[in-house]
Fold this protein.
Amino acid sequence: MLIIAGIARGREIRVALRERARALGAVAKALWRVGDLDLARNKDARGKCLKKAASGVSERLPAPPTMPCSLSWLVAPFFAAFLLSGCAGRRPISSAPPLAPPPGPSAQQSPTRTAPFVPGIFVEEGIASWYGVPFHGRRAADGEIFDMNSLVAAHRTLPFGSILRVTNLNNGKDVQVRVIDRGPFVGDRILDLARAAAQAIDMLGTGTARVRIELLSGPNPAVGNFTVQVGAFADRANAERLRDQLLARYQPIFVQDYDSPTGHFFRVRVGRVPSAEAAQQLATQLRTSEGFQTFVMRLDAPNDLGLQ
């Protein structure tokens, strides 16, 4: 709009200048006519003077006026003043576009994610696996029904309801999951993903993948009680026998029964400590001195203690 207004303003100026130029031309013609008339008079006077001189009559004539020269000096400043008066009242028109307004918040800006109570408090790397059938449709450790087509996961120590970002370190793909279950209990694995979550980071075919876990939001993972699982038995008597062997060196020791899709098991758990770090130290001691395969576990409810 400013450019169009500038063009219109320029046209107005040009029209005004043309009108003033025509007026100036008329004035100049009138002045030159006066000059021509005076010049003719001067010629007549000079002719008379020459005739008198020829007849021996001496007569001093006044110096003839130099009207044409004086007119040239008058016209030039008059013309300059005329042009200046025509432009003095005009302001220069800028054709530059208006400055862009400061950028506002982007409409596509992603919404702020609920931050954890302490940013970056929990980051873990290790091997993840996935599970589906025969656990699909069964009750998870937090009490809800496990759906293998949802973005959920099992972790041994993070509180239920924790939101995690899981990144497949082999391909960079990531997914967000919610912790609803406990596990895994195989080797050095740190996380079990529902089938849908595993598919999202392209690890269905491999079965396992090295991942990075980042806690995005949820309850404080440092608050709670922890224990160390040292065995799981299908026969309750074997679980109680192991408990009795360890009671002389470690207390308390609990036996917890667990109904899984593959059968009923009795888990033996040692100790009850107020931090995951203390539980990890206890697990290292039990592994090195007793030779157990150990898993640090969160105690979620009083019934997790089982039978002492």
User: Anything to note?
Assistant: Residues 225-305 form a domain with the Alpha-Beta Plaits fold (CATH 3.30.70.1070).
